[in-house]
Write a structure and sequence with these properties.
The termini are far apart. Strands 2-1-3-4-5-6 form a six-stranded parallel sheet, with helices on both faces. It is globular and about 30 Å long. Strand 4, helix 4 and strand 5 form a beta-alpha-beta unit. The protein is 41% helix and 19% strand. Helix 1 crosses helix 5 and helix 2 runs parallel beside helix 3. The longest helix is centred in the first third of the chain and has 13 residues. With 130 residues, the chain is α/β, with parallel strands linked by helices.
Length: 130
């Protein structure tokens, strides 16, 4: 079981991600925006973060940059779920994103990618799954 923070402003997608992760046995802290996501990461020091990009108050990429700047958090893998970005995008690379999953996505793809990320926590370079 992993402790995960997921940040997603779309309530339906947030519920789908949360339910899928919990059904897989993970503890999930689900929040509705990047600012809440960063606060949850700082409080809980999760095993991984799953985030949308376009959210109110702070984007997923801004949140990832803040995580990478913090010596206590920078090791935490950040998986971005996006309809407009892939891992080769310079924005993802510059922010330090671990992996990108394309929207729309199937819950099984998210769980597979998360399993890969958790199995190799020191691996900063990830991959894009479409």
């Amino acid at each position: 079981m992993a402790v995960l923070v997921t940040a997603e402003d779309d309530e339906d997608i947030r519920m789908l991600v949360t339910r899928s992760l919990r059904n897989a046995g993970h503890q999930v802290i689900a929040v509705a925006d990047g600012r809440e996501g960063l606060a949850a990461v700082r409080k809980h020091h999760p095993d991984a973060v799953i985030t949308d990009i376009d959210m109110p108050y702070m984007t997923g990429l801004q949140m990832c940059r803040e995580i990478r700047r913090d010596p206590e958090l920078k090791h935490i893998p950040v998986v971005v779920v996006s309809g407009s970005l892939d891992f080769q995008d310079t924005l993802a690379l510059e922010a330090g994103v671990t992996a990108v999953i394309a929207k729309p996505f199937v819950a099984g793809v998210l769980l597979h990618q998360l399993t890969e990320v958790l199995a190799h926590p020191s691996q900063r370079a990830g991959k894009s799954l479409t």
